[in-house]
Amino acid sequence: MGEAKKHDVILSLNAVSAGAPALRAARIRKKRFFVKIVGDYAWEIAVNKKKSSLLINDFQNTAQKGFINILAKTQRKVCLKADGVIVPSQYLAGIVKKWGVPSDKIHVIYNGVDFKESELTREEARRKIGIPGNIIISSGRLVPWKGFKMLVKIMPELLKISQFFRLVIIGDGPDKKQLESMVKNMGLERKVYIVGKKSREEMAVYFAAADMFVLNSGYEGFSHQILEAMAAGVPVIASAVGGNREVIEQGRNGFLIKYNDEFNLIEAIKGMHQSLELRDEFAAEGRETIVKYSVEKMIEQTFALLENRPN
C-alpha cells in the first residue's frame, strides 16, 4: 500500500497472487492499474492438481467448482477492473476476451528475447554436455500438457530411422519422476536424457549441441523456448497451438505439427533430420524472425502504454 502511494501507475505481472492485492491498493490510492496475463492460472492449477484433464480452450467453456472456480473468478475480476490488460500474443488476447474483457482494454505486446549464443562448435558442445549423436532438444516445465511423454514414446521409432538419435529433455516439474520411470522401463537410459533445469549459459551450450528443437505442447501462450532456439540458430518443430502459430510460418522458419500426434511428430523429425539444407534454411529464417522480438521493443511498447502515449 505504501509503495502504491509513490507511483502513478501499478503493473502486476499476474492476476491472482499479486494482481488482487495490487488492484485493491490501486483503487484505494486512485492509481491506474494494469495487469499482464501470460496464461490461465486457474486452468494450470486445475491440471496440476488433477482436477481437470482438459486443454485450455475446452476449459474456458466448462463450469468450475470450489477453489478452481475461486481462482477463475479472481483472475477474471482483476482483468475486468484493470485499466488495461497486457498479453504476449493474439491467442491470449482471445482467451482474455472470453473472460468478458472488452477488446479495447487488451493490449498485445510480444515478449522479447535476449539470448546469448554459445561460441562452442556443435562437436565441442556435445563433448561438454557428454552426449553424442543427433540431438533433439525439448525444454520446459515438466507438466502434462507439455507432451514430453509422447517424445519419449516415439524414440524407439526414431531409432529405427537413425540409431544416433538422442532426446534431451531440459526442465523440472511434477512429471519428472514419471518420465524417468518411463525411460527406464523402455530401456532408453542411453538414448533419452532428462537433465533438469539449466541456467541460460548452460542452455546456450545445449542449443549449440542440438540438431533440432521440438516443442510438443498442448498449450503455449507465447513460447520463450522457441525464440531462444531460433536465436541460437536451431531449427524448430512445434505444435500448432496458441502463440506458436504467431511465430512459426509452416515450412518457412519451422514445422508446425498436431499436438501429441505420433505420426506427425515422427514424420516432421524424420524430414528435418534427412535434409541438412532444410535445417539450415529454418535456422537462417529463425534468426530473421527473432529480430522483431527484441527486449527493447517490448520495453518501449510497455512504457508507451503505461505512460498513456502513442506507440
Automatic annotation (TrEMBL):
GO terms for molecular function: glycosyltransferase activity. It holds the Pfam family Glycos_transf_1. Residues 122-288 form the Glycosyl transferase family domain. Residues 6-115 form the Glycosyltransferase subfamily 4-like N-terminal domain. This is Glycosyl transferase family 1 domain-containing protein. It comes from Candidatus Yanofskybacteria bacterium RIFCSPHIGHO2_02_FULL_39_10.
